[in-house]
Every structure is written in structure tokens, then in C-alpha cells.
Amino acid sequence: MPHPFPDQPINWRRQVLGHLDSLSAAGVTWLPNAPPLSLPPTLTEAPAAAAPPPPVTPAAAAGAEPAPASPLEQRRQALQMLAAEVKGCMKCPELASTRTQTVFADGPPGVELCFIGEAPGADEDAQGLPFVGAAGQLLNKIIAACGMKREEVYICNILKCRPPGNRTPLPIEASNCRGFLERQLELVQPKFICALGGSAAANLLQTTTPIGKLRGRFHDWRGIPVMVTYHPAYLLPHRSPEKKKDVWEDMKILLARMGRPVPART
Ligand code: SF4
Questions:
Q1: How many other C-beta atoms lie within 10 A of the C-beta of residue 30?
Q2: Is the pLDDT of residue 99 over 90?
Q3: How far is the CA of 173 from the centre of ligand 1 (A)?
Q4: Is a pLDDT exceeding 90 seen at residue 162?
Q5: Most buried of 87, 114, 250, 265, CB within 10 angstroms?
Q6: Given a cut of 50, is residue 191 above it in pLDDT?
Q7: Nearest 5°: CA angle at 229, between 226 and 233?
Q8: Would the CB of 194 count as within 6 Å of ligand 1?
Q9: Which atom of ligand 1 is nearest to the CA of 93?
Q10: 93 CA to middle of ligand 1, Å?
């Protein structure tokens, strides 16, 4: 018999009991052994427990998915993690045991120009930032003369630890630290690099050519143009201040390649 109300659930138990009552009233005292009934799952199985609703975050409540970090922000965070890794580095036993702290870099990723020096000096070792001593003050003036601000460039060194007495980095030390520098540059992705001094140029470009023959023209590091010039420390009054004009010539070539105006020198 068709269900009289097809859009409502069937009460199978009540129907069976009602049928047995009517049979009993009619004098039926037994029934044949029938094959097992195939009942709807709703009568044989407990309903599955409903999954708990997901927690409601403020962003979800506002109807918005949390925004993923931008590629630049991801690179900034990766640089922070790399700096933390450098902080615990003990690859160069002498440097690791004599440093006050590691000196990773100054500046944000994604800038146009990256300056690379040799290694931290006493002031840098004390402050944890590159180029903050007398040579750093001169570098600041060079950057300003180029029409830029220090915050607009990235500054780092070949070595992240100060060699005792400011001695030249040993080849093994430069080799130990090279992986950090390469990862750093891959994350910063500067469009131009300026290597400051013969040691920085030799280590970055893996060359033994003296700086006098490297400076004033472009080299290449993984597709990035590299200008080589003298280290600011070399330009200090007690060393070779007359070389400042050579540095300015190198900077003018760099600025022209960057498509920037060359400010008149005061
Ligand atoms: S100079 Fe570089 S490789 Fe050597 S101990 Fe310092 S961070 Fe490590």
C-alpha cells in the first residue's frame, strides 16, 4: 500500500505492532518463519555524530580569509631566520670565540643597490651593525652624494664576524661564510651590487685580480651587475684620501647604469 503521506517518515514499528494486533484479534496465534526483513538504514543504524563546527576566527566572522604574506614579507622573514642562524654559527673557531656578536646586515630586502664590504670592525662588532664606524660615516656620505638615503640600500659584509685586530679574513673564513652571503643576496635580490675594497671584490667574484684593475667597470654575480670600488676605510685621512675622486668616478658609472641622475658634487 502506498504511503498516504509520502513526504513524512514511515513509523515502521507502529505499523508492525498494529498489524500484529489485528491478526491476534482475528484469532491468528502463530506466523510462518519469514526471511529477515530488509529495513531502512534509519531503523537499524544510529545516525552519525555531526562533526563539530570549525572555530570562527575574526577574519572568518568578517567574511574574509587571512591574507597570505607578500613575497617581500616572506623574504624579510627568511632573512631574519638566516640572521638567527648566523648568530649561532661557530664555523670559524677563532672568530666565534672573539666576536662580541655577529654583524648580519643593515637594510631591507628588495632594494635596488647592495653594498658589500669585507668584515665588521671594532665599532660594528660592538653595535651589531655594518659600517657604523669612521668608514661607515664616509659610506653614508657617498650614499648621500649619490642622491640616496642609507635606508634605501642594503649593506653587509663578506664575513659576519670581526677578525681579531681587523686582520684580513683568511680564505677558509671567507669560504665558511660564503654560503650565508649567497643566501642573503638571493633573498635581498638587489638589482646592483657595489663591492667595497679588494677583499670584498676578490671573495664575491672569486678572482685574484687586484682592485686597481677591477674598479671602474662592471662585473657579474649571478646576473647582477657588480661595480667594484675602494673601501671607505681606504679613503680615510690617514690612508689614501686622494682616492675619493676615483670612488666618485666609479659611483657615477654605477648611477648612470642604474638610470639615476648624477648629482653635482658639493
Ligand atoms: S665569519 Fe661567518 S662562517 Fe665564520 S663564524 Fe662568523 S658567521 Fe660563521
A1: 6
A2: yes
A3: 7
A4: yes
A5: 114
A6: yes
A7: 130
A8: no
A9: 5
A10: 9
Residues 4-46: pLDDT tens digits? Answer: 444 545 455 655 565 555 445 545 555 545 444 444 444 444 4
Q: What percent of the chain has pLDDT over 90?
A: 72
In sequence order, the 6+-apart residues with CB closer than 8 A to the CB of 207 are 201, 214
**Structural contact between residues 168 and 90, judged by C-beta atoms closer than 8 angstroms:** no
What gap in Å lies between CA 148 and CA 168, rounded to an integer? Answer: 30
The pLDDT assigned to 23 comes to 47
- Evaluate: CB of 86 within 6 angstroms of ligand 1: yes
Ligand 1: which residue has its CA nearest to atom 6?
161
Classify residue 128 as left (phi > 0), alpha (psi -120 to 50) or beta. Answer: left
DSSP letter, residue 152 = G
* Residue spans of alpha helices (H) in 106-210: 122-127, 134-145, 171-188, 198-205
Q: In what order do the strands lie in the sheet with 218-221?
A: 154-157, 113-117, 192-196, 224-229, 218-221
User: Which helix or strand (DSSP H or E) is residue 83 part of?
Assistant: helix 71-87
